[in-house]
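Supplementary notes (optional reading)

For those who missed the lab, this is the record we used. Protein: ABC transporter substrate-binding protein. Length: 330 residues.
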Amino acid sequence: MQDNTIHPSIKELKIDLERGKLSRREFLRYATLLGMSAVAASQLAGLGWPKKAFAQTIQRGGTLRVAAPVHKVTHPAQFSWISPSQQLRLVAEYLTYTDNNNVTHPHLLKNWEASEDLMTWTLNLRQGIKFNNDDEFIADDVVFTINQWLNEDVGSSLLGMVGSYLEPTGIEKVSDYQVKLHLTRPEIAVPEHLFHYPALILNHRTFEGDFIKAPHGTGPFTLDTYREGERSVFTRRSDYWNQGADGKPLPYLDSVEFLDMGTEMPPQIAAIQSGEIDTIDFGDVSATEAYAALKDDPNVNIFPATTNQTRILRMRVDMNPWNDNRVRTA
């Protein structure tokens, strides 16, 4: 959506914001979902937009060595948790991305438009993007990928969510760079759903069910090595489409290596202290033990990160000892 063709609902959101019925964070989320750029929505809400990092702080080159699970992966649409997607997203990408302020931005999309009734979504693709095998990224790739999500035989974890408002017959290729989604019911969160971890865009010409056998994505790295339970290696593309904060093509790194060291923390802690690895991707494992061991190490940097990830303890309140409120609140 162009900002001079504002979705009618944004005007209503602005009124709710002014009346205190909506927070500025909520306004930014909904306005961007309805197609307004993050900068324009921020200005409309009376907020400034964060400046990009200074170019002089950026260092290029080198290899990042990560202790992380190297999962068995075949079809990205079958991912049921974020951890298996962490490495493949170096190679393949999403149509959108949602930042840590819960604001959704275009990525492989140039922009999108929502109809007034939220029943039709027009996805406008960026042009000139290439897969790492030199195939052009076009609407056929988007149509193919979304159909994979909706195919019951694939068993995608996106089926229950996206399939609740979209059927295969509702996916329309308008041109090589535009796709329309005709929904079965109104849905405002479509752009957010396009950033779910199984939603990596596939090359419709080469993907046959196993991404490792045909690792063709639009992302900044190519897959060199992938050995389940052992090691994976990703190498920088020289022709990646996106640019960094210094105005030069991404990525900043020359390569990324993942070493599967299992789920026990002591070997990973020892590896980072010895310089064998640079960082730890904890995956599904709690970082409490590692934090306690590394927080006072002068050679290790620990960075806080904003996340909505939570760990939940569910209790059977009809059984001992959880039926005692003192236990539940202890």
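If you only remember one thing from this example: DSSP finds ten helices and eleven strands in the chain.
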